[in-house]
Amino acid sequence: MSLDAARHEARPERLTAHEIRQRLQHERNSRITQLNAIDEAGHEAADDLMAAQRTSIQRVLKEIDTAFQRLDEGSYGTCQDCAKPIPVERLEILPYARCCVGCRQRPA
Q1: Around 38, how many Cα atoms within 13 Å sit in the side-chain half-sphere?
Q2: Mean pLDDT, to the nearest integer, of 10-20?
Q3: What crossing angle do the helices spanning 48-73 and 17-40 adopt, rounded to 10°?
Q4: What gap in Å lies between CA 30 and CA 107, rounded to an integer?
Q5: What is the pTM of this model?
């Protein structure tokens, strides 16, 4: 048995609510730390790049809050476009994902 096969077999099909909350909280804490670092940089860092970073971080924080709501409602882990389960591998990487990879890559 290869190492990759062993890793794949050990991976659960779904994450527990506790694991999901931990992952989302970790993502949230990371983004808040990033925002604090931008704020601590002061006015010298108030250029367009910093403004774009701040906007992006705030967008992700909203996505994380929405993921917490989906978890509370029981719809977490279900693609909002095709209604199929989002693979656990995607949720491990991006715990606030709203869509499966196939739907995300589809042109709007």
Answers
A1: 19
A2: 78
A3: 160
A4: 30
A5: 0.80
What own/partner pairs with CB < 8 Å and gap ≥ 24 does 4-7 have? none
Q: Residues 6 or more apart from 96 whose CB is under 8 A from it?
A: 24, 27, 60, 63, 64, 66, 67
Q: Could you tell me how far CA 75 lies from the centroid of its own chain? A: 15
pLDDT in tens, 78-99: 999 999 999 999 999 999 999 9
The 3-state secondary structure of the chain reads CCHHHHHHHHCCCCCCHHHHHHHHHHHHHHHHHHHHHHHHCCHHHCCHHHHHHHHHHHHHHHHHHHHHHHHHHCCCCECCCCCCECCHHHHHHCCCCCCCHHHHHCCC
The verdict on domain 15-105 having CATH code 1.10.645.10 is: no
